[in-house]
Write a structure and sequence with these properties.
- With 132 residues, the chain is of the alpha+beta class.
- The chain has a domain of 80 residues: Histidine-containing Protein, Chain: A.
- The protein contains 5 helices and 3 strands.
- Strands 1-2-3 form a 3-stranded mixed sheet, covered by helices on one side.
- α3 packs antiparallel against α5.
- It is globular, with a radius of gyration of 21 Å.
- It starts with a helix and ends with a strand.
């Protein structure tokens, strides 16, 4: 019985690893394929000055600021990407990062952050998504 189960698993795994027939060209050469490469974003995010959630301070004041901004962003009717932007607070200074669908979403999140952290305490690195 174990042998049969193992054989079935091997067959399923082999089928999953096959490439689609008739599409041996790289994705960028396939008709209708869109560029899904985010290498440039990943390289930018590895920069020494790029803040990531790891940079969030663990003191209660910074945690409260981030949580308050996040709650208001989630409670606002925004796209999924906008609701998932990175909110990083360090010594009362908030950095916002990530994609949003529109200028209106960008402004709304920035407004929420300024209301919570105070004017002059918000750095926005929000990006408006490009439509392919």
């Amino acid at each position: 019985m174990k042998t049969l189960a193992l054989l079935a698993l091997v067959v399923v795994c082999a089928g999953c690893s096959e490439t689609r027939r008739g599409s041996t060209a790289p994705p960028e050469r396939r008709t209708g394929a869109t560029d899904r490469d985010n290498t440039a974003v990943n390289e930018r995010d590895r920069g020494a000055n790029a803040k990531t959630p790891i940079d969030q301070n663990e003191n209660q004041a910074d945690i409260d600021i981030t949580a308050n901004i996040r709650k208001q962003v989630v409670d606002t009717q925004l796209s999924v990407n906008a609701q998932n932007v990175k909110i990083i607070t360090r010594d009362g200074k908030v950095t916002l990062r990530g994609p949003v669908k529109s200028e209106q979403e960008k402004q709304k999140i920035e407004e929420i952050a300024r209301k919570v952290a105070g004017p002059g305490n918000v750095e926005s690195q929000l990006e408006i998504e490009r439509n392919p």
